[in-house]
Amino acid sequence: MKNGFKDKLSERVFLALALSSISAIALITVFIVIQGAPIIGKVGLRDFIFGMTWAPSQGKFGIFPMIIGSLSVTLGAVVLGVPVGICGAVFLAEFAPAAVRNLFRPAIQLLAGIPSVVYGFWGLIFIVPFIRDNLGGPGLSILAGSIVLAIMILPTIITISEVQILALPRQYKEGALALGMTHWQAIYSVQLPAAKSGIVAAVVLGIGRAMGETMAVIMVLGNAPGIPTSILDPVRTLTTNIGIEMGYAAGDHRQALFATGIVLFVIIMILNITAQFITRKK
Amino acid sequence: MIFHGAVPESKLNGGSRMSGKSPNIKIKTKNLNLHYGTFHALGDVTMDIKERSITAIIGPSGCGKSTLLRVFNRMNDLIPSCRITGDVLLDGDSVYDKSTDVVELRKKVGMVFQKPNIFPMSIYDNIAIGPRRHGISRKSRLNEIVERSLTRVALWDEMKDSLNRPGLELPAGAQQRLCIARAVAVEPDVILMDESCSALDPESTMKVEELMLSLAEKYTIIIVTHNMEQARRVSDMSAFMMLNENRVGSLHEYGPTIELFTNPQSKVTEDYITGRFG
After folding, report:
1. Does the predicted interface ipTM exceed a cut of 0.85?
2. How far apart are CA A23 and CA A34, in angstroms?
3. What is the pLDDT at residue B1?
4. pLDDT digits over A7-29, tens only?
5. What CATH number is associated with residue B227?
6. Distance (Å, rounded) from C-alpha A141 to C-alpha A160?
7. Within a domain: residue A73?
8. Domain span at residue B218?
9. Average pLDDT, chain A
10. Cα–Cα distances in Å, from A243 out to A153, A236, B49, B158?
11. Interface test with B, best of A101, A168, A179, A182 (most B CBs within 10 A)
12. Are B113 and A175 a contacting pair at CB < 8 A?
């Protein structure tokens, strides 16, 4: 009887704690929707999302340049980061000798622990001048942001992909080798396809991280709210738009920033749900 | 170790599949020793394996049967601590020589595993993947290989209309036959089967056994099995393995299946095959 009571009690405590974390998410969602929805109603959803001009002082709230900014920087990060990340995961899972692996694994996890402002600062000091001097333009650019973000999403992609490759049944690799495939052939024709859904999920989570990153990209993107014409142009992303202007915004302007947050929130939700859906399908 | 005398002519020459010729030796091991680190897994295994016949390796768990089987296609190479001494010859060429190309060796010595290990792709691709990686890209040629390989394992009629379905959707018995077809598609000389029926129901087991018998017309087949009846039903030669007095896996008795089962030379073999231990 007494044990039964204890069981019930601890169950309740865990439930309360779990609910409080879920309710935090719910509260944030409700709050940004309440704060941001009125301006979307006022401007109109289409004009808000597809509007080309962001000029809060003139009452123009179009975030299309920022959507393009977020997408282009994220795409750049994926193009640069995903091949490196997957190759890194394959190297760690299949080729690295134990000593190398034991050195690389914590080092890669450490990458995830570096504060994003440090990445931004490093990008500003090294990448931006390098691009300005060698490729032209202001240096503060899509390319600079993509490079910094590519490095920032590496830990996510490498760690999850490596786990996926290691979790494959040994029989896949043995079966491939027994057919007279080389180690490399076994990897690309059997092991990677078998781990595909997990690796895609890793990439989607990486995209979510790139999309949501603010501090590092504020420092290297230049933040001009226009449509870029080359990867050497500066852009502003949805996150940097909020980060830069929230400090002094008021009234409609402030609401428009919350509305930007809603759009970002929806995009990231879709990405996370996609990642979960992909992993579950397996 | 006990060797029976000369293989009786009646057994080996009588069968139609020997086509009247006395069979050649396909694989030869001499004083084969295998260590995993400090663990001595196989001790002084010396045996000849005849071409186009079925050799069964039997014995209690943990006596090195699978380890011995994996010597023949160098699957043990995957284990870094594995060391091998002695000779292993395939068609007279050393399997463990420095100049031996492991990939070429494994094309010649195919393997079917304990659990069906169909790759997560279509039935067609499962079979075509080996030949593709070995450089065959012409669609018509691949189609031909897929049809021939599936026909060999008696799955063609059943599967010719569903070649694009995922292989993993098939029942276990069909999956295992597909694995055999996949091995056959690479046109090996030798097929190793590591307890390939242990995960199957009796009916599927029977089908795989029939398959073994028909494949032995063309290939040298070596099976590891826990199933005494299976060894007796399908194999021409039986190798009984045991831990020796130093607890090292070794070949205890080796001879024609019919003799090993009806007239075992050693008491231990007799006890094992009559089910008194193991």
Report:
1. yes
2. 16
3. 63
4. 889 999 999 999 999 999 899 99
5. 3.40.50.300
6. 29
7. yes
8. 2-119+188-273
9. 93
10. 20, 11, 75, 63
11. A179
12. yes
